[in-house]
Amino acid sequence: MTCRPSLVVTIPAAEYAVFTQEGPLLCVHDTTAYIFGTWLPGSDYELIGIPDFEYYGPHFDPKTMTGELAYWMPVRRLP
After folding, report:
1. Which domain holds residue 35?
2. Domain presence at residue 6
3. Within 10 Å of residue 13's Cβ, how many Cβ atoms?
4. Which one of 5, 24, 50, 67 is most buried, by most CB atoms within 10 A?
5. How many domains does the chain have?
6. Is the pLDDT score of 61 beyond 80?
7. What pLDDT does 8 receive?
């Protein structure tokens, strides 16, 4: 039996813009390019100084590295 250490991370409460991606994990670079190159500059939001994160839920297959994931970006509305 192989044991793996677990990591517990507390995610700060904030407003998040959530982007869903379907397909191969390698496409996450296209998703982030869209977020930073198109969506964020054209939105009424700015990033805040806490980490963003990806969520791999039940619709993601870790064996094939494909499926659905959500990319969460911490934001606040511009004044």
Report:
1. 16-77
2. no
3. 8
4. 67
5. 1
6. yes
7. 85
Using CA atoms, how far apart are residues 73 and 56, in angstroms rounded to an integer?
15
Residue at token pair 């994990």: 25
Taking only the tens place, the pLDDT of each residue in 16-55 is: 999 999 999 998 899 999 999 999 999 999 999 999 999 9
Confidence at 62, pLDDT banded by 50, 70, 90: very high
C-alpha distances in Å from residue 26, one per residue of 6, 21, 22, 23, 30:
25, 11, 11, 8, 8
- The answer as to whether 4 is a domain residue is no
Q: How far apart are CA 49 and CA 75, in angstroms?
A: 9
- What is the DSSP track for the chain? ---------PPPP-EEEEEEEEEEGGGHHHHHHHIIIIIHHHSSEEE-SS--EEEEEEEEETTTTEEEEEEEEEEEE--
Does residue 63 sit within a domain?
yes
